[in-house]
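In the design runs reported in the main text, the only information available to the sequence generator was the tokenized backbone. The following block is the verbatim input for one such run; it is reproduced so that readers can re-run the procedure and compare outputs position by position.
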């Protein structure tokens, strides 16, 4: 697989996104006729994964894991969850 297909659609007035290894836009146009698809080469994602990893590593190294209400708490946990979903060390 060399491409990720990102589908943006709305359901019950809420914007959603789904990613696939194939173009599944026809399935989502049945839900939302205005659904769109974006083709993303996987090679472009590597720098973003590296950026998320560096962000998590730097927060851990300098400040430790932030507690709720602390600066960067939401961003830190979102980055960690994304890395874990990708099978990366987080």
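Verbatim output:
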């Amino acid at each position: 697989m060399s491409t990720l297909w990102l589908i943006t659609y709305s359901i019950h007035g809420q914007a959603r996104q789904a990613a696939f290894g194939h173009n599944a836009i026809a399935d989502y146009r049945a839900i939302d006729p205005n659904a769109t698809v974006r083709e993303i080469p996987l090679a472009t994602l590597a720098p973003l994964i590296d950026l998320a990893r560096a962000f998590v590593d730097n927060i851990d190294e300098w400040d430790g894991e932030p507690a709720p209400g602390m600066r960067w708490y939401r961003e830190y946990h979102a980055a960690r969850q994304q890395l874990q979903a990708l099978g990366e060390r987080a």
